[in-house]
Amino acid sequence: MPHARAANSGNSRKAKPSRRGKPGPRYSVGLPAAIATEVERYAETVDASMSKAIASLVRLGLENQANRKQEFFRRLKENLANDDPKNQERMVDEFRALILGR
What we know:
The chain has helices at residues 33-45, 50-81, 88-100. By secondary structure, it is an all-alpha fold. α1 packs across α2.
């Protein structure tokens, strides 16, 4: 037995969810003058508001941190596979640089 179709009120398109949705949590941040100037320049370069520029830069920073973490574990696995005591001190320094960004 065929299923009955729901009555359509003349609108054949499905309602699309709003792209904007609810905004996420809001935070106030204080930036040193030099950093604020750099963010302002970045915002102008990408034609975005300061808020969107800060959000973008934070996202990029978090992605960079995740990439450094992945690189750390990749190199750690390589080092463990190639157990060469001569390279241990050098690898410790490189890992420190990858993790701490120094």
